[in-house]
Design a protein that fits this description.
This protein is an alpha+beta fold. The chain has a domain of 211 residues: FAD/NAD(P)-binding domain (3-Layer(bba) Sandwich), CATH 3.50.50. The protein is 31% helix and 26% strand. Helix 1 packs parallel to helix 5, helix 2 crosses helix 11 and helix 9 packs across helix 10. 49% of the residues are buried.
Length: 408
C-alpha cells in the first residue's frame, strides 16, 4: 500500500513525486515508469530550452508556472551543479506582415514580467550576425540545459526522500475502490490511496482507466529536426526563433544551440501515426484509429489544412525544410544540415476541435491527472510538481483511511 503512486517517469512525473515527498515527508511514494529509463519520451527528445514565458496568455497556468519555473530550474541546476547556460534568444520578423505580431508578442512579454527589449534589424545582427530580419525582440532569460540530466537528479532525490522507483512497469488496469485504487501492471500489483497520472502521451488513456474523462484526447505530433554540421555552427550564436503563428500552438522552425554545443534546426509539426512514433514509418493501428475516428481531429484538420500541408511538405522534402531555415539565416544550404532526432508532442485536443492551449490538470476523487503538459512543461516542472502537491488533501486524512473493500 502506497500513499501516493505516480504514473510516468518523465520530468513532470518525477518532479511531482519529489514535491510530494517534500510536502509529505512521512508518505509512502512510488513512481511507475513503463520504459527502462527515465525521461525516455517527451522529456528526453525535446530541445532542452529553458523558456522565459514570453509566449503564453497572461494569467494562464503556462504563463504563471513558466515564469517562476524558469527561475527555479536555474536555481536547481546551480545547487546540483548541472550544466546550463542562460544564453538568451532573439525572436525575429522576416516579413512586413509579421511586424504587428512581433509588437504584440513584445507587449505580452512585458505583461508576463519577462525581461525583453525591442531590436532593430541592425541590433539583431550585432547579436546574431547571420540573421536576416526586419526587426526583433531579445529575450534575456531564455536558457539551455540537458533535461535528461535534470531528471536523473530528480530520481536521485526521490530515492533519498525514501520514495520507490519502478522502471519497466506498465499500468494495464486500474480498479477504483472507495478508499484506494488497485493498479495491475506487468510487474505486479500496486495499491495506492492517491494516484497522480503524468503519463504524457498516454495520459488520456490512463485517466479513463481511473474512470476520469478529461474531455480531450491526446493527438501526437512528431517534430523533426536537422542539425548543423560542426563547421557551420558559427552561423548561430544563441537561439533564433521566428514570430509564431498565433493560430497554431507550435513555435515554428527555429535554431537552438544545445548544451553540448551542437545546433539543432526545427522542428516541424506533423501528425504521428503512433503515439511514440519517432520515425516516418512508425505506425500503430490503435493510435492511428484513435485519431481518425475522433471527430474533433477533422475539425482541426480542416481549419488548419494549409498549415498542415506546409508541415507535411517540410517533412518529406529537405529542400522545403531548408527553405524555412533560410528565412532566418539565408546562408544555410541543404548540404549544411543533417537529420537529427525527432520528438513527439502529446497535444491534447478538446472535443470541440480546439487544441488545449494551457496545461490541463484534471482532479478526480482520489487522483490528479496531468492531461496536457507540452512545452514549457520541462521548464515549469518544479512548479507543476508543487502545484500538484498543493492539490492533495491534508495527508493526515489519507493516513486514517482503512480500505474495507480489499479482498486480495
Amino acid at each position: 500500500m502506497y500513499d501516493f503512486l505516480v504514473i510516468g517517469g518523465g520530468i513532470v512525473g518525477l518532479s511531482s513525486a519529489m514535491a510530494l515527498g517534500q510536502r509529505f515527508p512521512d508518505a509512502r511514494i512510488a513512481v511507475l515508469e513503463k520504459e527502462a529509463q527515465w525521461a525516455h519520451h517527451q522529456t528526453g527528445n525535446n530541445s532542452g530550452v529553458i523558456h522565459s514565458g514570453i509566449y503564453y496568455k497572461p494569467g494562464s497556468l503556462k504563463a504563471k508556472l513558466c515564469q517562476t519555473g524558469c527561475d527555479s530550474i536555474i536555481k536547481f541546476c546551480q545547487i546540483h551543479e548541472i550544466p546550463y547556460d542562460v544564453c538568451g534568444k532573439v525572436i525575429v520578423a522576416t516579413e512586413p506582415s509579421e511586424l504587428g505580431r512581433l509588437d504584440a508578442l513584445y507587449q505580452r512579454g512585458l505583461e508576463n514580467g519577462v525581461k525583453v527589449v525591442r531590436l532593430t534589424s541592425q541590433q539583431v545582427r550585432e547579436i546574431e550576425p547571420h540573421v536576416n530580419c526586419l526587426a526583433g525582440i531579445r529575450v534575456f532569460s531564455t536558457g539551455i540545459v540537458d533535461y535528461k540530466q535534470v531528471c536523473q537528479k530528480y530520481a536521485e532525490l526521490i530515492k533519498r526522500q525514501g520514495g520507490q522507483l519502478y522502471l519497466n512497469t506498465k499500468v494495464e488496469k486500474i480498479t477504483v475502490l472507495s478508499n484506494s485504487q488497485i493498479l495491475e501492471t506487468n510487474n505486479g500489483t500496486f495499491e495506492t490511496k492517491f494516484l497522480i497520472n503524468c503519463a504524457g502521451l498516454h495520459s488520456d488513456r490512463v485517466a479513463k482507466l481511473d474512470a476520469i474523462d478529461p474531455q480531450a484526447k491526446i493527438v501526437p505530433f512528431r517534430g523533426e529536426y536537422y542539425e548543423l554540421k560542426p563547421e557551420k555552427r558559427y552561423l548561430v550564436k544563441h537561439l533564433i526563433y521566428p514570430v509564431p503563428n498565433p493560430n497554431f500552438p507550435f513555435l515554428g522552425v527555429h535554431f537552438t544551440r544545445m548544451i553540448d554545443g551542437s545546433i539543432h534546426a526545427g522542428p516541424n509539426a506533423v501528425l504521428s501515426f503512433k503515439r511514440e512514433g519517432y520515425h516516418k514509418t512508425d505506425f500503430d493501428l490503435r493510435d492511428f484509429a484513435d485519431v481518425l475516428t475522433y471527430p474533433a481531429f477533422w475539425k482541426l484538420a480542416i481549419k488548419h489544412a494549409d498549415e498542415g500541408m506546409r508541415e507535411m511538405i517540410r517533412s518529406f522534402f529537405k529542400t522545403a525544410f531548408v527553405h524555412s531555415l533560410q528565412r532566418l539565416i539565408p546562408e544555410v544550404q541543404a548540404e549544411d544540415v543533417i537529420p537529427a532526432h525527432a520528438g513527439v508532442r502529446a497535444q491534447a485536443l478538446m472535443n470541440d476541435g480546439k487544441l488545449v492551449d494551457d496545461f490541463l490538470i484534471v482532479k478526480g476523487g482520489r487522483s490528479v491527472h496531468v492531461c496536457n503538459a507540452p512545452s514549457p512543461a520541462a521548464t515549469s516542472s518544479l512548479e507543476i510538481g508543487k502545484a500538484i502537491a498543493n492539490q492533495i488533501p491534508d495527508f493526515s486524512c489519507l493516513k486514517t483511511v482503512v480500505n474495507t473493500e480489499k479482498t486480495r
